[in-house]
Predict the 3D structure of the following.
Amino acid sequence: MLYTNKRLQKTNRYKTYNALLNKCYKTSIEKEKKQQNFYKRISFANLKTGESYQITHSFEKYYKKYTKSIEQKIYTIEALARKKALVPVFMTLTLPSEFHPFKSIEYKNNRLYTNPNPDFMFEDIETAIQTGYEYLNRAYRAFYKRVKNKLSNLMYIKVVEAHKTMIPHFHILFFIPKEENRILRKEFVKIVNEFELNQSDFSQMNESTENKNDSSYNTRINRAAKYVMKYITKNLKNSADIFYARVLDGWKRIFKIRMITTSNLPLTLAEYRTIYYALDSEIKESLLKEAREKNINLFYLILESLAKITTLKHNMVTTLKRYRSLLYNRFVIFKTVIKRQTDRGGYSYITSGFTFYIDRRIAYKKMCLLKIYNP
């Protein structure tokens, strides 16, 4: 993981670093095995046909599915920001020097780690990670609390990334009104000084016009969303990539790190997944076609097209969704019943079926029992 010299490799700190990588990797493997064993004990049945089947768990498939759904949400936030004519501002929050276990220099267009950091203030790297994550969270919460009531509109995407040394740092993409950039910058400078954060960056990613229909504005705001996506989506091309992805998976589990946080949207990822996996392929393809024609993603199509009314009764969530769709060009009601329940330390959503009403007549009805896990 680290590009180092032989002197550093002989130190105890470097050895504990390698032990931590292996611990994170093994944690990811053990988690996958537990999930595989859990699914082996469960069979699913189609109550209508009597057909039964089992679910298998694959880390690589889960990783790709997870990043794809996160990508859907991020590009939906981007589309909403474009609609509101907000501009992107990018921030990085990095911990002070005493949190970092090694010293490094620039060497042949790479970062060469040379010595243990004499200012490192922790007994081990694991304590530095846990303490550093909590420290950055306090700084970010203080910053967000100060700006949320001062800005007329604010949307964000926050990503927690690990340095090669496994010490965390934050990348945050804000979407704000152009004229209020000064407020965000002022509070950023205050929080960096107050928490003595190191190498923390603030940049407005464009000199954007207020005209949301301007083509250069659309290009710049799309570039901002793609820029933050590179910190989330890692390609699994070879064994080294898979090893690194597993290390990060174990890292977030061991230290209980929430790697991606975004502005709340009326449609949650859990609801989106529940809807997506319950639709028949024919209906799904029709909706995807409509989304492509509008040059938007499916998450955004559902979010913008559906006005949601939710009622709670005996832990059952009855969701009534209405929208006028270009696909049908008629008034449509989409109705489903979703139940949320606690499940093995996380939660899951269960839907019993979907019904489409077009002009008050049933156009499509599917009875199913679909369970979506959100660990």
Notes: The chain has two domains: 63-262, 269-374. The chain is about 40% helix and 30% strand. The first helix runs from residue 6 to 9.
